[in-house]
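Pipeline run #58 for the internal structure catalog. This entry was flagged by the ingest filter as a single-chain record with no existing model, so it goes straight to prediction. Upstream metadata was stripped on purpose; only the residue string is passed forward. Reviewer on rotation: M.T. Logging verbosity set to normal.
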Amino acid sequence: MTFTPHRRDVLSGALAASVAGWALPARAASVGAMALGNAEPFSFDDLKTRAKELAKAPYTPPPKPADSDPLRGMTFDTFAQAIYKPEMELWRDVPGAQKVRLFPQGRFYAEPVSIYVIENGQARQVVYTPDLFNMPSDHPLRTLKSAGFAGFRLMSRGGVSDWLSYLGASYFRASDPQDQYGGSARGLAINTGRPEEFPRFTSFWLEQNGAGMTIYALLESQSVTGAYRMDSRRIQGGQGGALQDVECELFFRAPVDLLGIAPLTGMFWYGENSGHFRGDWRPEVHDCDGLSLWTGTGERIWRPVANPPRIVTNSFSDEHPKGFGLVQRDRNFENYQDDSLFYDRRPSMWVEPLGDWGKGCVNLVQLPTTNETEDNMVAFWTPEQKIVQGTVINTKYRLYWGVDGPPTGDVGRIVATRIGLGGLGGRDLDLRHTKPGARKFMIDVEGKVLEEQTRFGGTHTVVTTTRGKITGVEAFPVVGTKRWRMMFDLSDLDGQEADLRAFLQKDGVALSETWIYQAFP
């Protein structure tokens, strides 16, 4: 697929160390035609030791480029003009091997990363040269005295598109299963929604594993160092997608107030729950429409995301969580009408803990936005453990990129949330039957468990609120569909926020996910 640079402009530049003065580069015939540095033994244990030793010293940030540096004026379009030469792919001539192409530095990816290839337990650094890229003769990268790589991507068969890329800070993302990028994962999040610290992957080691690629990475920032191993492959059969088994060992240089393990980021500008948006011709614009939770007790929770009036952080306490994810459930093109950015094809992201994560909480941070170019939704796990200088954490999890999160089991899944004026709207084509300040919530649910239910068979809506008054509570099947709808009005907030909770129930048994929402006055 055509590469689109990452939305989040969090990086300020630095130039790569010059390769001048290196030992004469070698070539590994099985890797490709590019020049490589000297071979050195490598293992994940070695990387952990390196991260541990780095954490004992203060962090040294890379130098920022001068105002006159050519990278400062580079636009997205200029960055995209530097195209990696297909004939220089890593492992290009190895049958069945995963092919790799590299990204150069750019304005938004100005800090360089070191990239190594591993064969037979030996690592060799890939030597940067502008000759690896096709670009115009006056391209800024040709004028730099020293430059380097910003990241890499794993190519699909035939080299027409890519299915996994690492570019910028500790961001990475997959385009599977529908060849369309959307949200991103990160190595680590620190103080999201506050003055935020962005740890970055400074070095990568790539190793073929037979099924895909094992990616090792060194993470560094002011507060932490980390060693990562990410076994990455594509899922064959079913709905497809991508899967990554991630292990990280973190060493903290300094205390951290809000730690984010397995962070996921996405964009939500407006959707069905945003009312009537008048600034854009498209009905909806988002690459995730909700946070899905599977708690340690087995409860399934759906939290529709929203574009809030201010930064909002919601915490969902849990113990031994089964998973969480930022999910794009609405797959109907008619609801987006965008045949260029294809929001209906954006992959969902799901985190499955491996091992015992103990006590903690899933945090959802929602930031206000006025456009579709910013990742304003962030979800991550925060352990109960207090993070102080010298803390060491080892975490393992499985990250899925796919059409949806895991099936919701014996309960129906929530597929739409709509909000409008409360009361009996539409009567006499005026607002005389609408209570001032009241809002109506319509929540659609679908699932096999609901198909045999009848309107007057005992299925009802259970709804609670932390503030205000709930009226007009109903539950009924939607005519002409297999869906059910929960409906109620919320009023009397008196300028305060309210936390809502609703689900379908019959004979004391939940028939749907638990719907959770935060209503603003």
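catalog note: The helical segments are 44-54, 76-80.
catalog note: Residues 1-26 have pLDDT under 50 and may be disordered.
status: ready for reviewer M.T.
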